[in-house]
Write a structure and sequence with these properties.
With 347 residues, the chain is an alpha/beta fold. The chain folds into two domains: 5-99, Winged helix-like DNA-binding domain superfamily/Winged helix DNA-binding domain (Arc Repressor Mutant, subunit A); 126-346, Rossmann fold (3-Layer(aba) Sandwich), CATH 3.40.50.150. It has helices spanning 5-10, 17-25, 27-40, 42-45, 53-60, 64-76, 106-113, 115-120, 123-129, 133-138, 142-148, 150-172, 192-200, 212-224, 260-273, 295-307, 314-322; strands at residues 51-52, 80-82, 87-90, 182-186, 205-210, 231-235, 248-252, 279-284, 286-287, 312-313, 326-333, 340-346. It is 49% helix and 16% strand. The strands form three sheets. The protein has a seven-stranded mixed sheet with strand order 6-5-4-7-8-12-11, with helices on both faces. Strands 1-3-2 form a three-stranded antiparallel sheet. Helix 12 (150-172) runs parallel beside helix 13 (192-200). Strand 2 and strand 3 (87-90) form a beta hairpin.
């Protein structure tokens, strides 16, 4: 039986190592195509229904031929669909780039495609010096830069709100916090994590501890959720002190901003505030041992790029905690993507 050309084309051949490396090298093509869709608000333009390419180009004020080329590439990624005769619709996947969704990923696409994209180009500098790539790229460390650039700062705030806000309910569904009566969220931002715990556990009260300008947002957020009476706020730096009186202390996405010396100082301040029976809970990505792919390994590089921080393995967390007055009791898997709940007691 003769094998047709179509049948031959359908037989997948192993990717040669050289071409596999080329595929990895050009991954930025994909992320920048997605960024462009977000920047142009392609998904928003199609939320009310499909449009033909000429009408879509006019609506977005872009070139029709170039738009067709972009849509062709994005369709191959599953973000949009050509219904025939160049009539396009947004898919469920692509709809996450729409601006008005509460779980929108558009802010992440914009931040990743602009400020962070430039910073990643300086990864060699970070690996060579141990300094942040972001600071090298932009002439200022990230939080200083965000304060000076309002639009990028708003993007970053939206990224944190959409990713961390969605994470909090999944974390609370993964662990029973009902035994803890006073829960202090150290570096807690607006307080979405402790608010979720208190809301689910009627016998618990909480506190958000963060810098003064952050605490203003936390007060407004807690009032909006109707939790002001059960969740207190206190302004300060975790490098100076941590409030006493809690039987549970939370550090969510705090430790990964810092190398071991600075992370150790934060842990020591927590340890000094804690009573002997109190527990510490750290929410972070935990890097698995071994050569297998894990997004946490790339997230670790991202922390190096952003602020010279780092993700850690379970063994590294164990060592860090032991050196700063704690005993690691468990690493709990959670329903939240990519993160674990590390539980530690006072040593």
């Amino acid at each position: 039986m003769n094998t047709t050309i179509t049948e031959k084309a359908q037989t997948k051949k192993p990717i040669q190592p050289r071409f596999e490396l080329m595929r990895l090298m050009t991954g930025n093509w994909i992320s920048q195509a997605v960024y462009t869709a977000a920047k142009l608000k392609l998904s928003d333009a199609l939320l009310d229904g499909p449009l033909e390419a000429p009408a879509l180009a006019e609506k977005l004020n872009v070139q029709e031929i170039e738009l067709r080329r972009l849509l062709r590439a994005l369709e191959s990624l599953g973000l949009f669909r050509n219904l025939g005769e160049d009539r396009f619709e947004v898919t469920e996947l692509g709809s996450f780039l729409a601006e008005d969704r509460p779980d929108s990923l558009r802010p992440l696409a914009l931040f990743n495609g602009e400020a962070l994209y430039a910073a990643w180009a300086q990864l060699p500098h970070a690996v060579t010096t141990g300094e942040s790539a972001f600071g090298r790229a932009h002439g200022a460390e990230i939080f200083e830069y965000l304060e000076a650039h309002a639009e990028t700062g708003a993007q970053f705030d939206s990224v944190m709100a959409s990713t961390h806000g969605a994470e909090a309910p999944a974390l609370v569904d993964s662990y029973d916090f009902s035994a803890f009566k006073t829960i202090i969220d150290v570096g807690g931002g607006k307080g979405s994590f402790v608010a979720e715990i208190v809301e689910k556990n009627a016998g618990s009260k909480g506190m958000v501890y963060d810098l003064p300008h952050v605490i203003d947002r936390a007060r407004a957020y807690l009032e909006e959720r109707g939790l002001s009476a059960r969740c207190d706020t206190q302004a300060g730096s975790f490098f100076d002190r941590v409030p006493e009186g809690g039987d549970a202390y939370l550090l969510r996405h705090v430790i990964h901003d810092w190398r071991d010396p600075e992370a150790g100082k934060i842990l020591q301040k927590c340890r000094a505030a804690m009573n002997p029976k109190a527990r510490l809970f750290i929410v972070e990505a935990v890097i698995p041992e071994g050569p297998e792919w894990s997004s946490s390994k790339m997230l670790d590089l991202n922390m190096l790029v952003i602020c010279a921080g780092q993700e850690r393995t379970a063994a590294e967390f164990n060592t860090l905690l032991a050196h700063n007055g704690f005993k690691m009791e468990a690493v709990h898997e959670t329903k939240a993507p990519r993160v674990s709940l590390i539980e530690a007691s006072v040593a």
